[in-house]
Amino acid sequence: MGGTRLSHLLSVMVVLHVVLTAALIDRDNLTDSSLLLRIKSDLVDPNGVLDYWSPSAHICSWYGLTCSDDKRHVVGLNLSGSGLSGLISRELWYLVSLQILDLSSNFLSGSIPPDLGMLQNLRTLLLYSNYLSGKIPEEIGLLKNLQILRIGNNMLSGEITPSIGNLTELRVLGLAYCQFNGSIPPSFGNLKYLTSLDLQQNYLNGLLPEAIQGCAKLENFAASNNRLEGAIPASIGNLRSLRIINLANNSLSGSIPVELSHLSNLKHLNLLGNRLSGEIPWEFNHLVELEMLDLSLNKISGTISLLNSQLKNLQTLVLSDNAFTGSIPSNFCLESSYLQQLFIARNHLSGKFPLEILNCTSLRQLDLSDNNFEGELPSCLEQLENLTDLLLNNNSFSGNLAPEIGNISKLQNLYLFDNMITGPIPFEIGKLQKLSSIYLYDNQMSGLIPRELTNCTSLTAIDFFGNHFTGDIPETIGKLKNLNVLQLRQNELSGPIPPSLGHCKSLQILALADNKLTGTLPPTFRFLSQLYKVTLYNNSFEGPLPETLFLLKKLKIINFSHNRFGGSISPLLGSNLLTALDLTNNSFSGAIPARLAMSKNLTRLRLGHNHLTGNIPYEFGQLMDLNFLDLSFNNLTGEVAHGLASCKKLQHLLLNNNQLSGTIPSWLGDLEELGELDFSSNNFHGNIPSEFGKCTKLLKLSLYSNNLSGKIPEEIGNLTSLNVLDLQRNNLSGFIPPTIQDCKKLFELRLSENFLTGAIPPEVGRLTELQVILDLSNNSLSGQIPSSLGNLLKLERLNLSFNHLHGQVPASLVKLTSLHRLNLSNNDLEGQLPSTFSRFPLSSFVGNDKLCGPPMLSCLDSQGQDRRKLSNTAVTCIIVAIVSTSTVICFVLIYIMIRMWCNWRRVHISSLESKGSDQHRVIEEDSWEAYDQGKRRNVDEYWKMNSTELFHAQDNKFAEHTAYPLPGWMQKA
Predict the structure, then answer these.
(1) d(CA 511, CA 501)
(2) Is 809 helix (H, G, I), strand (E, B) or coil?
(3) Between vectors from CA 561 to CA 556 and to CA 564, what angle results, nearest 5°?
(4) How far is it, in rounded angstroms, from Cα 209 to Cα 818?
(5) What is the pLDDT of residues 597-641, one digit of tens each?
(6) How far apart are CA 155 and CA 653, in angstroms?
(7) CA-based nearest residue to 825, from 836, 833, 815
(8) Any idea where this protein resides (predicted)?
(9) How far is CA 101 from CA 32, 75, 77, 658, 715, in A?
């Protein structure tokens, strides 16, 4: 239906065109002149190229116009590259004699007028490189005589109109660099004279049409950077005139058609960046005219079977990023070869260095990186005398770097990193006068960095990271005036930084970290005006920084951490372009300069482990991009600067181990990106803000060793990403909130040394990711140990000591097979310990009198002792009872006898004698009473000492030897 409608439309327009042409056939020069002046009025002409379009001059002399031989008609309009803007005038169709219309390379906008379809004599239409938008008008198919149509590099969109297939005289079709979608119209197969088809850099999808074989004269076919899919049609092999095929960066799949080997005129074949698989057809060796073959970034496998005696014209072969295996074939390169570029990186090739490549004496660039080659590098590499780039990185080459490397006189780039090369750098390296970059990092090289290297005055990049080089940095390093990158990190270099380094005025990156360098920074550093990244960490540099460092205005990244620098940090703050500053572990002193806030792009600021004093600058609130702030282990005072509330991108805030005071600010809850918050070991007081519950990205919250009080907020359960919660050594009270169960990613929970009460919530057993420690010790927790703790299968340390827990140890705890430290001591636990707990020391359970079982006394022994204690008591009671009864009876009998005797003797005994007898009895009774009191006092003292003093003395000793060791950094503090 669409084709019928288009046919009707074309018929109507043809009739209309004939009528209008007849009406205008007698127009004179003045008519064309008036028309073009109206067209001119619609254009913006900032360069004045149309100033000479004037009625006072003959139209054929106007800029950009070509007239017919009789000078009556305009046959050509060429305003290419004139800087014009505005719309393409619809009135152009009145120029019925026009054969060439070239408005390319301007700033024209709007759509392509459908009226251009009236220009039946038009042979060339060039509208490329403008800002045209909209669709290609179907009326373009009316231009029956059109031979060249180039409208690419615009903002045109929509599907490509099939009416282009009606342009049967078309030779060149250029639709590249637009936003076309849909499929390639099969009607293109009608273009039997087409020699060049350029569709690259669009959004075309679908299959390559089989009908393309109808373009029998096609020489150049480019459809790269689209979304084409499916197999490459074998019918393309019928286009025997093809010289260039570029289908790169699509989603083509399947194998490479062997029929492509029939294209005997093919010079360039580019299929990179697709999903092609299978092997390279051996028949490709018949493409004797082939100059460039790029099959990289596919899934092609098998061995490399190319480059036999027939491919003499091949100059570029790119097979990188595939799955080729095996080694390089022995007939790979002939002495008469023109091969200049060979890229076979990122495959699975193996074996030793392919000596066959040494026959490719024309080679300029060789890339065998990221394969499995091994063995020593051949000394005869010097045979590749034309080599400019040698990339052998990411293999397993070993042995020493041969001195003959210095004979490849044209070498510019040498990439040997990530191998197993040993030995020193040969001093012959200094012969490579054109050497621009040398990358030897991640090897096992050793020895001195040769002074001769500084004779390579063309060097722009040196990277020796991760070797074993020793000795000094060559003092002649200043000869490398063009050096941009000096990367010597992670070696064993010693000595100072040579003052001549300051002469490397082009230096942008200086990385000397992880060495044994000493001394102070030379004053010549001030000449490194292009320096933007400098890393000196993990050395032994010392002394104050030169004040002249303030002159380095382009510094962006500074890392001087883990050295012995002292004094002020101000010399490093001359640049307002800083993005990262790390001075951790030095001896810098003084206040933190507020000037740091002038570096608006600062993202990382690390000043921890120094001797800085004063307050946190309020101006830090201007650092809107700051995501890492580490001021820990200093002597900072005052409160947390309220200005930090504006740093909404903060992810790490470390203020621990200072002398900061005040309350923890609630506005921290507004820092929604916060992932790590450490305020430990300060003097903060007050409550933990419930607003922390809004920091849902928080991974670590550490507030230990402060004076915080109040309850643990229930909102802590909102921190579902939390890994570490450390609130120990505060004055927190109340219950452990059950909402903590929602922190399901916790692997470390420390709440010890507080005043927490109540039972351990059984919900803690749902924290199944707990691994490092669960420490609830030194609180006032009561109740039983929840059996749910047996679900913490990953837990390695559990400390519930020094609480008031009672009841039995849950049998479910035997499931904690990862547990290697357990402390349940000093509670009121009772009953038999699980048998598997015998692997823990006695100190894990002392202070629980009613616990039994290994490693404590067996429960039978304990019961026996109890029985023995009961039997002795019974015996004692019986004896006491018998003695008491006998004594009473004796006393009664004696009393009766005495009364009888007294009655009998009453007459003979005086009252005085009776009185003396009573006194004697009182004295006697008093002595017994004193004895009883003394006995009781001794007994009380014995039990007091036994049950209290001795027992607690043992507890203290136990606590001293069984407490968990503090981390090293805390011991230092």
Answers:
(1) 13
(2) coil
(3) 125
(4) 64
(5) 999 999 999 999 999 999 999 999 999 999 999 999 999 999 999
(6) 47
(7) 833
(8) Membrane
(9) 15, 9, 5, 77, 73
